[in-house]
Write a structure and sequence with these properties.
Blueprint (H helix, E strand, L loop, with lengths): L1 H23 L6 H8 L3 H12 L2 H12 L5 H18 L12
Helix pairs in contact: 1-5, 3-4
């Protein structure tokens, strides 16, 4: 029950953040550009870190394609995933034991 509510709150925060980024951010700013505006050195450090920790194939197959996507897409997709997990946890049926005696 607590996990379901926590995921619902997290989904709401992420979806509001995505709408805020899409509304108040520069028109169609990419995630790479937003990260560059946040920290100028991050795009220089990211390839070396991801190559060392995750491997070069992760950087080329997953990280680089995400950097060219709109900045609001990552929090929106994470919010949708959290909302789906919250809904799936809320629909679970609890086992009820019968109190009838035979």
């Amino acid at each position: 029950m607590i996990a379901q509510r926590a995921l619902a709150v997290l989904a709401a925060v992420l979806l509001v953040a995505a709408v805020g980024i899409a509304t108040f951010g520069a028109e169609s700013i990419s995630l790479g550009r937003a990260l560059y505006l946040f920290d100028h050195d991050i795009l220089d450090k990211l390839p070396a870190w991801s190559g060392r920790v995750l491997g070069n194939w992760v950087r080329t197959a997953m990280i680089e394609p995400m950097l060219v996507r709109p900045a609001w897409l990552i929090p929106a997709s994470m919010g949708i995933i959290c909302a789906g997990l919250s809904l799936s946890l809320s629909n679970r049926k609890t086992t009820h034991r019968s109190h009838r005696r035979s």
